[in-house]
Design brief:
This protein is of the alpha+beta class. The chain folds into two domains: 56 residues, Arc Repressor Mutant, subunit A (Orthogonal Bundle); 27 residues, no CATH class. The chain contains five helices and three strands. A three-stranded antiparallel sheet has the order 1-3-2. Helix 2 packs across helix 3. The longest helix has 11 residues. The chain is elongated and about 65 Å long.
């Protein structure tokens, strides 16, 4: 349903489409389209509510710099080997592994 809604909203441009028109265009119930737009649709970048029961979509480009990056292994090891980790007994020297 997401792809169909986005496609129709893109073709509508900045003027957008009403929930009723969207539902007719993708052969779904207006209630289902409404629930999707107001719940799951909130997480879709570029999907905007532009009026009462009216939505538009404008593609949003996300750069790599804006994406969260996992902590590097070295940064993790630095945290584990910090004085605070040694004080709490969680440094690598104090961790014991057992086999089950």
């Amino acid at each position: 349903m997401k792809d169909a809604l986005i496609t129709h909203l893109q073709s509508a441009g900045k003027v957008g489409m009403t929930i009723k028109d969207l539902a007719l265009s993708i052969s779904k119930k207006a209630e289902n389209v409404s629930v999707w737009l107001y719940t799951t649709g909130k997480t879709v970048p570029g999907l905007q509510r532009i009026g009462r029961g009216k939505f538009a979509y404008q593609a949003v480009e996300v750069s790599c710099a804006e994406r969260p990056v996992a902590k590097s292994l070295q940064a993790f090891l630095d945290d584990v080997q910090s004085p605070a980790a040694e004080a709490t007994g969680t440094s690598p020297e104090n961790v014991q592994f057992t086999s089950s």
